[in-house]
Amino acid sequence: MTLKLSLPDGSGRMQVYLLQGCVPQVPGKSDGVQIPFNRVAFSAAHVVCDPLKPSDPWLSSPIDWDATLAYRRYLWSLGLGVAEAMDTAQRGMGLDWQTSLELIGRTLDASADVPGALVASGCGTDHLVISERTTLQDVIGAYEMQMGAIEKLGGRLILMASRALARVATSAEDYFYVYDRLLKQASQPVILHWLGDMFDPELKGYWGSHDIDEAMETVLSVIKANPAMVDGIKISLLDKDREMAMRRRLPGNVRMYTGDDFNYAELIDVEPQDPSLYSHALLGIFDAIAPCASAAPGRLAAGDSAGFHKILAPTVPLSRHIFCAPTRFYKTGVVFLAWLNGHQDHFSMVGGQQSARSLLHLAELFRLADAANVLINPELALRRMRHLLATYGLFE
């Protein structure tokens, strides 16, 4: 059966688009058991809001806990870890701290029934009301409060970049002081988090400098002063050369977790000059391309680098589109794909951010998702895309 629909082409016209209709590759298995990865692969998971409950969508959005946890079980079933309560879940952009803590607790409880389930949880300062009187000690206290709450639940920490620290710190020494103090009291090694200002403009100048190379020196000094307490660092700078340069300088026990949603395929594979160097993954795009994100590392673990790139390479143009400027609106594309793929019954989002991308953006996303083979059920995706077009008055 030919699958087709008319999509806007940017010139004010509608053009017929023929779907390839190729479903994602099934993750590799040996004797019925999924091939174990030779990389740690976290998906920063989105949350599903409940549009049927009373709310002010731009201010507060109730969570559909059943659908949200079902998606995490789906990720675990594919062998992916869950990076919980991160910016993909709209942390600090519609998801407040109390709801984030409940999300973390529910996810940790759900993971107890899944052998080998990986969970790491975002710890930040987003409950802190920032003013001209806010001090470094206030920032440390806010971090400590969230650290204690998550560790009390048995959670593993991701020390998220802090808007409050970016506002209050006046030097690289301030960042060293805060992170050194936090790492010295963590109960187990943590994952550090360096989010570029393309993802969050309020983090501009993080680590005490607008110069990326100077900022890198600061974060490396923090890591080298506390190597036993740093599991790894996730960096999302969309700059593969700087990520590669930094991972060459990390202590041997510290992992680089790529957060580069433009160059992840290349970065997860080994450096040709030094096959011992590669990045693990903690990626928002892995939420959107979960089956491929599972199948590809399995090929890499089996020694099939060509097979790894064959699966992931078509997803890169899709990811670059989802994360195009303004990059902070990438979450709209992630949830849009979850809706197309039947993981939720609606295209509504925390903070009302389903409106953050244009119809033309979503139409191109649909084409690229089809080309990337990430539409799990092409017929369902086609029907849902037609429903979306109809809300804009576009009927076939």
CATH-derived topology: TIM Barrel
Number of domains: 1
* Poorly predicted ranges: none
- Strand order, sheet with most strands: 5-6-7-8-9-10-11-12
Helix fraction by DSSP (H/I, runs of at least 4):
40-55%
Distance between the termini: 18 Å
Fraction of residues in β-strands = 5-15%
Order of helices and strands: EEEEEHEHEHEHHEHEHEHEHHHHHHH
The geometry reads as globular
CATH architecture: Alpha-Beta Barrel
In the CATH hierarchy, what is the superfamily?
Answer: Aldolase class I
Instruction: Look at the helices and sheets and give the structural class.
Output: alpha/beta
Describe this structure in words.
The chain is an alpha/beta fold and 396 residues long. It has one domain (38-352): TIM Barrel. The protein is 40% helix and 13% strand. It is built from 15 helices and twelve strands. The chain has helices at residues 65-77, 97-111, 136-152, 163-168, 172-183, 212-225, 240-247, 264-268, 285-288, 290-301, 305-312, 315-322, 330-340, 359-371, 378-391; strands spanning 4-8, 14-18, 29-30, 33-34, 41-44, 81-84, 119-123, 157-159, 190-195, 230-236, 255-258, 280-283. The strands form three sheets. An eight-stranded parallel barrel has the order 5-6-7-8-9-10-11-12, surrounded by five helices. Strands 1-2 form a two-stranded antiparallel sheet. The chain has a two-stranded antiparallel sheet with strand order 3-4. A hairpin with a 2-residue loop joins strand 3 (29-30) and strand 4 (33-34). Helix 3 runs parallel beside helix 5 and helix 10 (290-301) packs antiparallel against helix 11. The protein is globular. The relative contact order is 0.15.
